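User: quick one - fold this with zinc ion bound?
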Amino acid sequence: MQKLKRILGSYTQGLNGPLLLCVGGLHGNEWAGIKALDLIMKMLEVEPITNPSFKFFGKMVCFMGNLPALKAGKRYIRRDLNRLWKPEHLKRLRDPNFCRHDVREMAKLKQAIDREIRHWEGDEIYLIDLHTTTATGGIFCLPVDTKPSIEVAKEMNAPVILGLVERLEGTMLQHYTIGDHSKPIKGVVFESGQHYDPLSINRSIAGVINCMRTVGSVLPEHVVNRHDQLLISYSKGLPKVARLIYAHRIKWGDRFVMQPGYENFQMVRKGELLAKDRHGEIRAVENGLMLMPHYQKQGNDGFFLVHKIS
Ligand SMILES: [Zn+2]
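Assistant: Sure. Structure tokens for the protein plus zinc ion:
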């Protein structure tokens, strides 16, 4: 098992360029992002040896999210670390009774990220948050609904889902990109496939490297096109851009059970039985494509439906 540490690695050659902040393992059962970031750090260390003309512009810093949850292999210990970044929680981080378990992890991660942002005097700042899903059948990115973030997402060569980040409450990405900050930050969530599919690691690597090219950390000629090919071939048949039309939130005590067998981007028809809970049957409100059906014990998002735009 990988050693747990808040800062997984950082890399710079001291050249002007963007600050690229990458986070893996905000959810403790999602190791693919961390393994990918670790490999990218190692690749960056050896690249100048094998390719003396390799240049890296700006700085890249990689973080691990929820360390106790990663150790336990669970999504979270008490509360979902990627739903905690709300003003009412952030105000209470000095309260020792509140700042425990996953909240403490948020405080420590925030401290580490804030330090990098505070000391950064260079150009733009980007935040990439790496995740995986319980269901199979798709990779996608979730940008903040601003033009620069959407541009970064589109260049990753995976379906871009609009409107979803805004529907989730208390995510790290929202905190850093939508909140009031002295320095504007652009950002995207990248979902690289199923939690335990070894190729989710390769796709995370490809997504981050495509991103490094888009934001100008590396020159396009230094990026091998197998990264593009890997994501393009996996995204074949999936929409290029889709927009959220429905989100089903699970409330405490709902006893939500998803109908078996749904995959990401599976077509569903209006009226189709999707899940059941203590209130009865849950049917599709519209025709759409399924996203992130809930097949794990933890978490409050039942499923999402999206519409293909292009
Ligand atoms: Zn996740």
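One thing worth noting: Residues 27, 30, 131 surround zinc ion (CB under 6 Å).
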